[in-house]
Fold these 3 entries.
Entry 1:
Amino acid sequence: MKRMKRSTLVIALLALLVVGGAATWMSRKPADKAAESATADNKAKDGAHPPKPALTVTVAKPEATELQLTLAANGNVAAWQEAVVGSESNGLKLAEVRVNVGDVVKKGQVLAVFSPETVQADIAQSRASLAEARATAADAAGNAARARTLEATGALSQQQINQYQTTEQTAKARVEAAEAVLAAQQVRGRNTQVLAPDDGVISARTATVGSVVSAGTELFRLIRQGRLEWRAEVTSAELGRISVGTPAFVVSAAGAQVRGTVRSIAPTVDPQTRAALVYVDLPNVLQNTGVKAGMFARGDFELGRSSAPTVPQSAIVPRDGFNNVFLLRPDNHVSQLKVQIGRRLNDRIEITSALPDGAQVVVQGAGFLNDGDLVRVVDAPPAGARPAKAAASAAAANAAK
């Protein structure tokens, strides 16, 4: 019994010792951690272990760059003038069509030919009628001349003499009428050939061989002199910035680019849209196969040049729907700043919002930074260096972070 009591007592004492030791160790662990943390903070303050930069970057100051002042507009491309070539003959059969859509023609060139047989027959008939009238007129003139010689002898009465003279005048009038009819038939004969009214390009054709058309029927449409124009719509508020002779740069929906010049400005403004048409002359249609009449096109009017602060394009970081730059602070930390951008020139972008005096913006590596990051600044690489190295270095530093 005594042995059992002693064994139980020894076990109980050992259990108490284990519990007490565990409690002591647990209570000391937070204190040791706090001490270690305080020691680390003290070492950081003493400069033993300075914080590591988040990224190695390059910086640049905004530069004043001369940029083009432009005014954007939209509009349609149309023919400068489109001539309608029609038939002047009536009831003739179209025998030959010599041109098609897209053909370049010269003024006076034959475009189509009507069958001339009917007109030639009418011309022959008119010539015969003219010859008959001239013969009649010659006979009447002879009779009138003889009557005038007998007037003094009294062999003919005055009434008879007047009749011979009237017959002479009537015969002359019939000759003139026959000459007019012949001239009209000759005009019909010339109209059997449809001629181009001006130099240009055929834009439409409705002429069909074998068809019988009436006078005035449209056969062709012609873009006069091959000239096109861009009819740009400009608001009344911006209209005063444009004048005749202003250069314009036009881009069609197909991507074709062409330069033109303002020829005229509409004298009125549409009361519904409050916009006016500005007519821009475009070069010859044959030299710009990508620009066609009827196309929609956008363009810019070049209004002059001005100086503006610009930064490299890689310095602009789009985030959350805004454009941002990162400014380098004296302590090598960066500050994120929202900016407004404007015109572009090659790889530089205009900053329209205000920047602090002496600001330096992060260029390479800006897209990997956050507001307040510590950075290490290095010189920009040479112009021929590959940008892939800088991007790989930035990505590696960001991953190490």
Entry 2:
Amino acid sequence: MNHLTFKPLTLGLLAAALMGLGALGMWTAKPSAAQTTPAEATKPAPSAAKPALTVSLTQARTGLLPIKLSANGSVAAWQEASIGTEVSGLRVAELHANVGDSVKKDQLLASFATDSVKADVALARAAVAEAQANAAEAAANADRARAVQGSGALSAQQINQYLTQEQTAKARVASTQAQLDSQLLRLKQTQVLAPDSGIISSRTATLGAVLGAGTELFKLIRQGRLEWRGEVTAAELGRISVGTAVLVTAPGGAQLKGRVRMLAPTVDAATRNGLVYVDLQGTSQAFKPGMFARGEFELGHSAALSVPQTAVVVRDGFSTVYRVGADNRVSQLKVQTGRVLGDAIEIQSGVQPEDKLVASGGSFLSDGDLVRVVQSSKPNSAPAQVTPAQAASK
């Protein structure tokens, strides 16, 4: 039987190979914790999260907010007077007022030529004098006839004739006097006077024109008063009453206060809207008859939650606020907004009074961001964005 035998040289080579493999394993093994180098021991640990923004807090407040109803409409004259001629066939001699002039009652606006009218007045005066002379003679004859009426010196027919002539002469005097009064009235009407105080809004009179009776010369805004005629729906019309306060805004931004004077008794059959007539208080050059204006009816007050407008951020078509939790991280809340009063806006849903909200700067935040809360920041001013380096240095 053959036995496997190793030569001494072969055994020596095998032992050397085993020792080499052991040394290679020790060289490639990871060093233990006790073998960590000084450089590895001084390597810094990962840093803590840095705040994304420094913010101040606010909370929703309960208070009374006004209930307002907005409407569009037009400005018009409260009453517009048409001033025209009362005489016919006379020439316009002078014009004393123009568009935009403020005039007083009975102020002279225009004058007509008076030559022909004065001649007619003189003729009428002469006719009156003649009639009065004839009346005096007829009265004397009637008195003599009455004196001899019972003596038989005059017949009854003659006496009646004298008495009739007396009555006819008196009637003639009255007739000529009426003609004189008519001519004097025409003379007075050659001067066109303002029927009321106000502002001239239109002038169609032309110097030298010969006009017929009833021709319009001027238009006058009586007393300079304007009104706003707001257009509201039939449902909204029932919410408004006479005396309701209104704030009317012109296109340029000027505003005038007013009060409802009258509600239209009918509603337009085509639009189903009704008119509200509002007397404007005071005057403003920014308001002109015929211009468009927007008005807000003040219908009272109601309790509501409100926050500063700076706390509300509009994002992706939704109004949102940011609530700050106990860990100073923010959560985004969608809210339903309503009325606006000054720098406050009504929150109809989505927020509770005890919620602590970011007062401003929400547009720089995202849901879950860490913030630094300070109380010294102005609640309505957007704070500056804080970088990680600035936050670490504080």
Entry 3:
Amino acid sequence: MELHHLAFRVENLDRSREFYCGLLGFAVVRDQAPRSLWLDLGERAVLMLEARQVGEPPYPPASLELAAFRVTPGERIRLRTLARERGCFDGETEHTIYLRDPDGRRVGVSSYSY
């Protein structure tokens, strides 16, 4: 079994695009703004950013749920600096940097090899 897609409901698609594409470097594979944006996760998988609908509850911003993406050690260090500059840094362990996306979702970038 392999990952097919992740779907994140987002408050503001433009802010989420800046975080996931501008900061983390994901490439857009399908742009259906203002409704959704699909980002390439490699290995035939996508991250779907979908606009939250009126009346739909927001993401709980203090949640410790996590989606972590693989990066090289050098990229992890580079992203730590950028995350601190942008105010979205949320801690780190030896191999993983934790960030908060514009909706407060916890996102990790990890160079841990298993």
